Amino acid sequence: MVSSFNAVLRKDLLLEVRGGQSTVALGTLSLLVLVVLVFAFNPGGGEQGAGAAAGALWVALVFSGMLGATRAVSAESENGCIRALLMSPLDRAALYAAKLAAAFIFMAVAEAASIILMVLFFNLEFDVRVARLVPAVLLGALGFAALATLLAGISSRLRGGDLVLPLLAVPMFVPALIAGVKASAAALGGASLGEFAVWLKVLVAFDVMFVAAGYLLFEYVAGEE
Amino acid sequence: MTAALIEARALAKSFGPTPILRDVNLSVEAGRGAAVIGANGAGKSTLIRLLAGLSAPSRGAAMLFGDQARSLKPALRRRVGLLSHQSFLYPNLTARENLEFYATLYGVDNARAAALQWLERVALGAAANARVRGFSRGMEQRLALARAMLARPDVLMLDEPFAALDTDGAALAAALVREALSRGCAVLASAHSANALEELGFAVLTLSRGRLVRAEILNQRPGAARPLARQVS
Q1: Helices within B85-215 (DSSP H only)
Q2: Are B191 and B116 found together in one domain?
Q3: Lowest mean pLDDT: which of A129-143, A158-172, A176-190, B19-33?
Q4: CB distance A15–B90 less than 8 Å?
């Protein structure tokens, strides 16, 4: 199972390096979102600025997450490759894990760029507060990648699936989105570790739930025809 | 009588109200080949898709190795090879990378060496490091054939194996199929014309209005262009 997981993940990353479409699109989208929101909110410093920056970062995460998960799943749509994967001895759970890992990596790269742009556009400093932001963003990226990969498996077979994915994913992600924004605002605003940790626990619970759900359900989602 | 490796039992498939296959029964044992021929839209590809487990039948059963094709365990899926209308190849990977990827999934020892060997066997050795996106249709078909066979499957399903192949390519494909049969593989193939498959000793069945009938060769009159055939159920 490990070698199959590695093979699928390596293949997806290789395709992305060769194509480069997802990473460029995700980075561009993140930049656009941040630029629009910084001019829309025109934030000052302090808590208000931290809240605005956190909100902008998570908007960028959600948009880039949908694009990243869709790309990870749709990479199999050319030439019917998903059918070949389903016919192979590849464990369905390993396929889900590899697609999740690919979507997570795409999102993590985009979010790294987003954090840098956020610090620059919102006049923040690269200090311990930004460092505390990282676990919240990574947990959020993992949770969204897990959710969106599972839903992308469903929506890829539907007419108008590109519209269905955000309609399904965004409402289901709201609890993690709220927790992520609160955790990020707490981190950037210099709040206590306790207040920050409360919201991290919500993100961890969300991640555990949707990674497990995807692991168990993906074979039924991907196998139907 | 040896057990059938490929079996359809009263297999039927409808898309909405339209029946495509009706009450199809066939079995293919190890080392035997069966060719399903028929007009465009007769349901040949649908039959192969059902037997490959890629689609659920409306009624009846599609069996491989005595198990339901839709729920084969990984150990049995490893023993099935499929050549489909779709090539199952990644356009932005090279020929070698495509074969190496599938060889890894199928647990083939030394995946890289196996990929290079098979590229030589299908006369694509010179194009090993070329991306599939730039391949001609015939090159893609050769590579797809190599992909279907590289794990030395015990069951092989070939949807129009000679499509887009030139004379050399067709001869190469026939040689590979002959070799598979000789090592005990059960082969089910679909085609518009049975000529090449008859030469390989395949039993020929015609799909007509969703039903499978057998075509027997009765006799051949001297000078006749084709042998006479009578279709029987």
Answers
A1: 95-105, 111-121, 137-149, 167-182, 195-199
A2: no
A3: A158-172
A4: yes
Model confidence, pTM: 0.85
B86 to chain A, closest Cα gap in Å:
5
Query: What is the pLDDT, as a whole number, of residue A21?
Result: 64
φ/ψ (deg, to 5) at B28: -130, 125
The identity of residue A123, as a single letter, is N
Q: Quick one: B194 and B120 in the same domain?
A: no
pLDDT of residue A225: 54
Q: If we measure between CA atoms, which residue out of A112, A122, A121 comes closest to residue A47? A: A122
Instruction: Examine residue B116 and state whether it is found in any structural domain, yes or no.
Output: yes
Whether residue B160 sits in one domain with residue B143: no
Range of the domain at B147: 89-152
Residue in A closest to B73 by C-alpha: A89
Cross-strand pairs, B6: B28, B64
* B131: β partners: B94
B178 within a domain of the structure (yes/no): no
What's the half-sphere exposure (Cβ side, CA atoms, 13 Å) at A75? 32
Across the interface, do A80 and B90 touch by the CB < 8 Å criterion?
no
Q: What is the pLDDT of residue A68?
A: 72
Helix ranges restricted to H, chain A? 2-19, 21-41, 46-74, 81-87, 92-121, 128-155, 161-188, 193-223
Q: Does B74 touch chain A (CB under 8 A)?
A: yes
Which chain B residue has the Cα nearest residue A11? B101
Round to whole Å and give the CA distance between A37 and A56: 6
Same domain, B148 and B197: no
Query: Is residue A195 scored above 60 in pLDDT?
Result: yes
For residue B13, report the phi and psi dihedrals to the nearest 5 degrees: -145, 130
Please give the pLDDT value at position B195: 81
Assigned token pair, A45 = 């410093």
Q: Kindly report the backbone phi and psi dihedral angles of residue A79, in degrees, each rounded to the nearest multiple of 5, phi listed first.
A: 55, 20
Residue type, A149: T
Using a CB-CB cut-off of 8 Å, the residues of chain B touching A12 are: none
H or E stretch covering B51: helix B44-51
Q: What is the pLDDT of residues A47-72, one digit of tens each?
A: 667 778 888 888 888 887 777 777 76
For residue B20, which of B56, B47, B51, B54 has the smallest C-alpha distance?
Answer: B47
B158 and B50, same domain (yes or no): yes
Mind telling me how many Å the CA of B197 is from chain A's nearest CA? 25
Nearest Cα of chain B lies from the Cα of A77 at a distance, in angstroms, of: 9
CA separation for the pair A191, A185 (Å, rounded): 8
Quick check: B45 contacting A, CB < 8 Å?
no
